[in-house]
Recover the amino acids of this structure.
């Protein structure tokens, strides 16, 4: 499939909704928990078993983004969005079949394996196209798309819950819900497939703070992974995500435990409200901080994420249960940095490696996310369990975890400071760039 | 006499742009509404 080149007069403001239609859909993955209790009761599964489709989907997200990135760059965003649409929707349809036949392995295969490929390819599909359309504001452009991934769960969570309520929580009700999800998401993502266009020729590039486009620096994905800059950013993303996910994953029990011994304990519904507020901060951080990075530079914004993030963790650890508003405020700031870290990384990659294969490089960097997804919850849960076994309670269950998070953020901060411009020996030679550009030119401008 | 070399008029993309943003904006607004509803429980619950 040739990359679809924009006809003259095509508005670049049509590209963000194309990207959003994909990201808002695949962001459903974070709302998988809605299906867990009905699946457990309908198919007699344990909590660990019912989490399997989600876990496999996240593993497949990382793998397909890492290994499929080069294909996405070669075949263009329309191909990638089509693959994402087919895989993500088919995943639901296979799961519908699995639920109807009460064959759980089909749900794991469908949602986890097939759907997970759709997640990975869909996640990276619009990144390099958006950066090419918005060379003056790459942070804002990728921030819009990646905000959509956070927004997807906000939509899917109440929508899926309402659907299960209407169809019933038995296996046929779940099957019908999966079927409707598959069809609806296919229709919704079609807009992205139809609208996405790559810009005609090279656009004049403003470069942004710290940008290298003006000097024409371009690095291939294969060379990028051999640079220290790639691995510094890998550590930066991994540490930032680990710190955020540590709070996000245990937010509800954490706020309840923190203030359990005070005169104003937190109820279950208030804790649910706290989790919702964190989601809002996560989403706002994605668009807000990544847009800010266009103004103050990528390195500076990561200094804020990691440095101020560590300060926020220190405030929570030191003030303990003395102030609920301060706890909530610090957690919101940390979660906004968590979202911002995700959304700013594609623009940071563009600054360092150029637009040549930025989508593929981004895909490879997402392995840091997979690592952090295991590391963050592991640290917080393991330490909380140990502290509980040692007879501790309240905020002291989490004090050690909070100090570990500060240490991780400090490691990320140092890694960010070590980021330097890429050595010229890694740059793509001009002739190869020209040949690649020629190969990517489509035969038609449809 | 018409000038053959003048560029053909480009279609107005504004309606398509508005439709595309509405397509993604409507479900997002629903999600945000549900989020705000739930978030208020922190202060009332």
């Amino acid at each position: 499939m040739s990359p679809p080149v924009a006809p003259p007069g095509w508005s670049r403001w049509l590209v963000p909704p194309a990207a959003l239609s994909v990201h808002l859909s695949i962001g459903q993955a974070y709302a998988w928990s809605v299906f867990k209790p009905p699946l457990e009761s309908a198919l007699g599964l344990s909590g660990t078993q019912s989490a399997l489709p989600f876990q496999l989907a996240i593993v497949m997200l990382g793998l397909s983004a890492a290994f499929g990135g080069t294909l996405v760059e070669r075949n263009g965003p329309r191909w990638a969005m089509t693959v994402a649409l087919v895989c993500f929707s088919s995943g639901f349809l296979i799961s519908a079949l699995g639920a109807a036949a009460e064959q759980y392995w089909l749900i794991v295969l469908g949602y986890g394996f097939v759907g997970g490929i759709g997640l990975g390819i869909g996640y990276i599909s619009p990144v390099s196209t958006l950066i090419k359309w918005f060379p003056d504001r790459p942070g804002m452009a990728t921030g819009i798309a990646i905000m959509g991934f956070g927004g997807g769960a906000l939509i899917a969570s109440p929508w899926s819950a309402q659907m299960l309520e209407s169809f019933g929580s038995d296996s046929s009700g779940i099957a019908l819900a999966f079927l409707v999800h598959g069809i609806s998401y296919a229709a919704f993502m079609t807009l992205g497939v139809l609208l996405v266009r790559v810009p005609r020729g090279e656009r004049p590039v403003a470069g942004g703070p710290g940008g290298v486009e003006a000097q024409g620096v371009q690095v291939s994905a294969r060379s990028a992974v051999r640079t220290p800059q790639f691995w510094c950013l890998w550590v930066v993303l991994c540490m930032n995500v680990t710190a955020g996910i540590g709070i996000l994953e245990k937010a509800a029990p954490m706020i309840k435990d923190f203030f359990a011994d005070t005169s104003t304990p937190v109820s279950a519904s208030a804790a649910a409200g706290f989790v919702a507020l964190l989601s809002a901060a996560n989403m706002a951080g994605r668009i807000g901080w990544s847009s800010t990075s266009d103004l103050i530079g990528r390195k500076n914004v990561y200094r804020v994420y990691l440095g101020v993030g560590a300060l926020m963790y220190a405030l929570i650890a030191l003030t303990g249960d003395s102030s609920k508003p301060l706890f909530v405020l610090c957690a919101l700031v940390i979660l906004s940095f968590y979202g911002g870290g995700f959304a700013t990384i594609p623009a940071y990659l563009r600054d360092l490696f150029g637009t040549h294969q930025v989508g593929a490089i981004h895909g490879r960097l997402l392995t840091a996310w997979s690592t952090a997804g295991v590391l963050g919850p592991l640290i917080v849960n393991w330490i909380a369990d140990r502290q509980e076994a040692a007879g501790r309670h309240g905020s002291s269950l989490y004090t050690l975890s909070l100090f570990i998070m500060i240490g991780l953020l400090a490691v990320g901060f140092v890694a960010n400071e070590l980021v330097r411009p890429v050595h010229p020996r890694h740059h793509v030679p001009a002739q190869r760039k020209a040949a690649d550009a020629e190969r990517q030119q489509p035969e038609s401008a449809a | 006499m018409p000038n053959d070399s003048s560029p053909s008029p480009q279609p107005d993309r504004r309606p398509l742009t508005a439709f595309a943003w509405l397509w993604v904006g409507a479900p997002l607004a629903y999600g945000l509404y549900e989020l705000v509803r739930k978030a208020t429980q922190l202060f009332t619950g």
In short: The helical segments of chain B are 14-39, 41-44. The longest helix of chain B spans residues 14-39. Residues 32 and 38 of chain B are 10 Å apart (CA to CA).
